[in-house]
Write a structure and sequence with these properties.
It is a single chain. Helices cover 20% and strands 27% of the residues. By secondary structure, it is an alpha/beta fold. The chain folds into two domains: 3-63 and 165-344, QueA-like, CATH 3.40.1780; 67-145, QueA-like (Thrombin, subunit H, Beta Barrel). The protein has a nine-stranded mixed sheet, covered by helices on one side. Strands 5-6-7-10-9-8 form a six-stranded antiparallel barrel. Strands 4-11 form a two-stranded parallel ribbon. The chain is globular and about 60 Å long. The two termini are 25 Å apart.
Length: 345
């Protein structure tokens, strides 16, 4: 398929710069696969579309404050986005570095308190190996000096607001390691999760540490030529059994987000069923893919030409997704990370 089939025009005013005041107050567009009907509700109405025995599968990765602002030895500004540690001590990292002039290997980037990182390698495409020189627990320092790694399409006068520390995170986030959030889960509150449980809706957790590649637009004009960046995942045996039991009993498995979907489908592709597993997921889901696990999908509204939008189109059908997006734009839904949600059943 051609990439242009997944492109659309979005007014800048519909890109959500801030979250809603209350998580569950986001709007919810319900897309019914059988009839093609579109329904407009609030996220707090989610329970009306779920049944006892349904399993919501959520990604419990926790975003860490991966963005650092520093200066090179020349005095020029350098913005660092940490991607992946190379060692257990977390002193050596792969990172994206944005600066007016590319940093040189052997150079230093200085941060607060005289703390600095040495550039030890140029990995190409703006990525570098950085060795951090810090006496103490680096991750503790990062929690105080780093910033939430908000995506670049969130445009506002102040880069980070006080609310971002709480809201660019799900309420059930527990395993630190992501540099981008699983945004479909932003709308859940503890109260809503408890209400769903009281209705007999089960929940299962997996962990996929989301990387920046998840939200990068596809560059190749032929969609099938795209290759996904690998991301670390883990599914525990107890959680796997909840999902597998639901499948055996004919209950629905509803993935919260594209990251959850890719992890479940990757495991089923490798194992033939859902069972405990961990490793690196690289599955790119595009139209023509035969879904093995999920029966429903809860998701946000995604960037044109992005892999999550292509995944949603594979699940719901491109024509129906196009119609849903046109309707969402017409009715001024909020788009992207801090935007509204869509439930496809």
């Amino acid at each position: 398929m051609e990439l242009k089939e997944f492109m659309y025009e979005l007014p800048q005013s519909l890109i959500a710069a801030y979250p809603t005041r209350d998580r569950a107050a986001a709007r919810l567009l319900v897309v019914e696969l059988g009839s093609g009907e579109l329904r407009h509700l609030s996220f707090s109405d989610l329970g009306n579309f779920l049944q006892p025995g349904d399993v919501l599968v959520l990604n419990d990765t926790r975003v860490f404050p991966a963005r650092l602002r520093g200066r090179k030895e020349s005095g020029g500004k350098a913005e660092v986005l940490l991607l992946e540690p190379f060692d257990e001590r977390r002193s050596l990292w792969m990172a994206l570095v944005e600066a007016a002039n590319s940093p040189r290997v052997g150079g230093r980037i200085f941060f607060a308190d005289g703390f600095f990182a040495e550039v030890v390698g140029d990995l190409g495409k703006g990525q570098y190996g950085l060795r951090f020189h810090y006496q103490g627990d680096f991750m503790e320092w990062l929690e105080t000096q780093g910033e939430p790694p908000l995506p670049p399409y969130i445009q506002r006068t102040r880069a980070v607001a006080s609310t971002d520390w709480e809201r660019y995170q799900t309420v059930y986030a527990s395993h630190r390691g992501a540099v981008a959030a699983p945004t479909a889960g932003f709308h859940f509150t503890q109260q809503l999760l408890e209400e769903l449980a009281s209705r007999g809706v089960e929940r299962a957790f997996l962990t996929l540490h989301v990387g920046p590649g998840t939200f990068q637009p596809v560059r190749d004009e032929v969609v099938e030529h795209h290759r996904m960046a690998g991301e670390r995942y883990k599914l525990e045996a107890e959680e796997a059994e909840k999902i597998e039991r639901a499948k055996r009993m004919g209950k629905r498995v509803i993935a919260v987000g594209s990251t959850t979907t890719r992890t479940l489908e990757w495991i089923a592709l490798r194992k033939g069923r859902i069972e405990a597993d961990e490793g690196i997921a690289r599955l790119f889901i595009h139209p023509g893919y035969a879904f093995r696990v999920i029966d429903g999908l809860l998701t946000n509204f995604h960037l044109p030409g992005s892999t999550p939008l292509i995944l949603v189109s594979a699940f719901a059908g491109l024509d129906l997704v196009r119609r849903a997006y046109r309707e969402a734009i017409r009715l001024n839904y909020r788009f992207y990370s801090y935007g509204d949600a869509m439930l496809i059943l």
